[in-house]
Amino acid sequence: MIVSQEVLDLYNVEDKDEFAEQMRSRSKHTLIEALEIEYVELTPDRVVMTMPVGPKTRQPAGILHGGASVALAETVASIATVINIDPEKFNPVGMEINANHIRSKTDGVVNATATPFHKGRTTMVWDIKITDEDGQLICISRCTMAVIAKR
User: In the chain, where are the structural domains located?
Assistant: First the structure.
């Protein structure tokens, strides 16, 4: 996993492997684990995650379920938001998401890349592109995240 120094500093972690393990541990017993979503790159302006296309993520017609693509898109936007806020004080929550499914996929892996349209104090808006192993566009999405103070 690629992790920027800015992200390590925000979490007060010196070792990238330690941080990677913390992120994987936080994903236990969540949709991230159930869909086998993996972390690839974490920087303040680019987050990349992967998800296998298989029985867990296919619809009955045998192609990648649009809901699985949307779950991946919101996951990558959530992680992108959380690494841009103080995680001790704030939580990211999804406010709105849309997706356009461009191409079908029956197996393999899809890659989701989130880049910011807007990074504000109370909201962030992310552009997410989901591609296959050959870089073919599978889905485009925009996700608006709220930054909520912890109670």
Answer: 2-149
Q: How far apart are CA 73 and CA 94, in angstroms?
A: 11
State the CATH architecture for 2-149: Roll (3.10)
Catalytic residue chosen out of the listed positions 74, 88, 96, 133: 74
CB atoms near residue 96 (< 10 Å): 11
Average pLDDT taken over every residue of the chain:
95
9, with CB counted inside 10 A (0-12, 13-18, 19+), is exposed
Examine the residue annotation and report whether 21 is marked as an active-site residue of this protein. Answer: no
Which pLDDT score is estimated for 121? 95
How would you label 17-35 residue by residue, b for 16+ Cβ within 10 Å and e otherwise?
Answer: eebbeebeeebeeeebeeb
The pair of structure tokens assigned to 119 is 């990074």
Q: What is the pLDDT of residues 44-77, one digit of tens each?
A: 999 999 999 999 999 999 999 999 999 999 999 9
Question: What tens digit of pLDDT does each residue of 127-140 get?
Answer: 999 999 999 999 99
Which of these, 150, 78, 86, lies nearest to 114 by C-alpha position? Answer: 78
Q: How many CB atoms sit inside 10 A of residue 106's CB? A: 11
